[in-house]
Amino acid sequence: MSEPDPIALYRVMFLARMLDERIWQLNRQGRAHFAVPAAGHEGVAGYAFALDPARDYLVPHYRDLPALLHFGVTPRDVFCNLFAKANDPNSAGRQMFAHWSDATHHLLSLSSPQPNHVPHAVGIALASKIRGDNAVTWTGFGDGSSSKGDIHESMNFAAIHKLPVIFCCENNGYAISVPQDMQMAVQNVADRAAGYGMPGAVAQGRDPLEVFEVARQAIDRARRGDGPSFIEIKVYRFMPHTSNDDDKRYRSREELDAERANDPVALFRERIVKEKTWDASRDDALKQELQAQIYDALAFAEASPAPTAAEAFTNVYAMGGDK
Ligand SMILES: Cc1ncc(C[n+]2csc(CCOP(=O)(O)OP(=O)(O)O)c2C)c(N)n1
Question: 217: helix, coil or strand?
Fold first, then answer.
């Protein structure tokens, strides 16, 4: 896997941030009923660049929009999902926002009960091993979810059978209002990997290239047939948990302001400017281009039809036939 193009990487991170801000505004305007912010998690885009979207599978965390944009998800897809339109590629308007699922992009749905998508990722990896298709499956979840039994069963099974799956905990320090030290007695979630017989590694999510490098090593290992790995990406969530959360009740504004110094989008922009691969005028032009893309996508989604009542049960229950 070659090094990622830094501009392509920056582009998805910047687009994700701009989409995130727009989605939040739409929610505050009463035009979108539910927002799930990704701001602060943009460094996860690094892992997507270490995968092969044509071959590998992604069963993502709900804050993985930056990575999904590299897998082919478009702003039109995002807004059609947000507004639950009939042409939402994720679920045709049935699932809540950010329950990403699109078979054309090898993207499989997470479920609202967290994290029961993780055993599904292990099942896909088992199928890959049986088929011999050399695909790797990546699955993501939060630090709160990492304390659930689904993770234990998944990691244990995957390690025994040396399955080509990467478990990725995006540790933002909170499970809604519950801080990490009330969820677990370890400092690094990845420390648990040893207990399953697989390597564990920590990457700082403020640096997408560090995330890429840690992901690349785990993916190479899985592709060689040496089995799963556990990666922890340390991030900070800049916005409330969802649009239904009031984060002022459990974290101080001083903490939030201090963490903004580690903004992954701003830091990566500074880095590519310093390396002279980027400059302010190119940044302005990109911002305008992405803004135009967002306006187009928003207009497209708003003009798209809602699902009809007659379609309410399609793909929800098995219909017809004598089963
Ligand atoms: C089984 C289950 N219990 C509770 C919830 C409600 N819930 C949704 S997200 C969440 C917190 C998850 O925190 P974490 O895994 O750290 O991810 P983060 O949202 O911080 O990225 C909870 C408790 C749920 N979706 N499923």
Answer: helix
